Amino acid sequence: xxxxxxxxxSTPAPSALLVSVVIPCLNEAGNIQECVHRARAVLDKHSIxxxxxVADNGSEDGSAELxxxxxxxxxxxxxRGYGSAYLAGFDAARGDYIVxxxxxxxxxFEEIPRFVKELDDGAELVMGNRMEGIQPGAMPWMxxxxxxxxxxxxxxxxxxxxxxxxxxxxxxxxxDVLPQLELRTTGMEFASxxxxxxxxxxxxxxxxxxELHVRGGESKLxxxxxxxxxxxxxxVYHPNFLFLLxxxxxxxxxxxxTITVFAHVQLFGREFFLHTxxxxxxLIIVGTQVxxxxxxxxxxxxxxxxxxxxxxxxSRERFRLEHGLLLGGAVVVAGLALGGVIVGKxxxxxxxxxxxxxxxxxxxxxxxxxxxxxxxxxxxxxLGLRRRD
Length: 389
What we know:
Blueprint: E1 19-25, H1 32-45, E2 50-56, H2 63-69, E3 73-76, H3 82-92, E4 97-100, H4 112-120, E5 125-129, H5 141-159, E6 171-174, H6 178-181, H7 190-200, E7 205-209, H8 223-236, H9 239-262, E8 266-267, E9 270-271, H10 274-304, H11 310-318, H12 321-348, H13 357-384
Parallel strand pairs: 1-2, 1-4, 2-3, 5-7
Antiparallel strand pairs: 4-6, 5-6, 8-9
């Protein structure tokens, strides 16, 4: 996933301009002048003080020159990517409000005043919803009935948002909230990142229906590639679902399996032995590691991305590095003690044949899991050096 460093967190000064219409552009020579003219006409018609900013993303068909000739202020961003273009456009925008709109003529520029009105009424991010206004041939059936509903629904489930069309290319945002979002991604997943970060920062997000028209020119979307980029971003920004939940489930399941083997519990009319124990201990080891990764990812989100997590904050206040070291050390000692028992039995048998495979597996599992807890505690402490209390 492409990322670029977030801009320094600072609140933009109020501007004499109310609106910056930011249009990302990559080889849109057939559309870009019409986009600029339409945007400028709407601003003038409704007496909205504003500008049109075209973020040219390395076009090779003269799009940048055509946009300038049409009256836009052009920002050139050679690093390819939908997110890269928008980040450059945001940096150059001077309006208090930023209206984002694609350069393919699929959106109605006459909707701009509606977005501005919502921002005037207190909204911080305003989304368009295309799903009920898709004109015939404007969206492939896979995107309309599978890709967008599934990804939007999954994002809403994880982040408790109510945005029906997460990937809509027409939206508006207050320029002064951009530093809170710390947007970083450079590709198409930028659309999802903005909604996720707005939800995490508890912004006032609103949505209303708009129409989607047939595109002018060739589409640059790749359904499977871009869909995967959106999905992985949704997962990466939610370490609880990606790491902590599956890790905890694996560790608990592995512990139950291990107890079942040692307690000689019969399930389905049969008893389980060595191979089942190996599987259970493997789940414990992997689960412990995944939970540790999840805690580190959670710490990174809180300390470096400014995410709000009340449970994590309370846990940080109650548990320190020393608690993790003591827990990890105790588990390692328990594993070594079991190893000592095995060695004692071996010595007692005159260094002869030894059949303590189950105890040996459990001993190794405890040592490995304890070391994971021990060193993960140090890593969490290192990440915590970044926190600002």
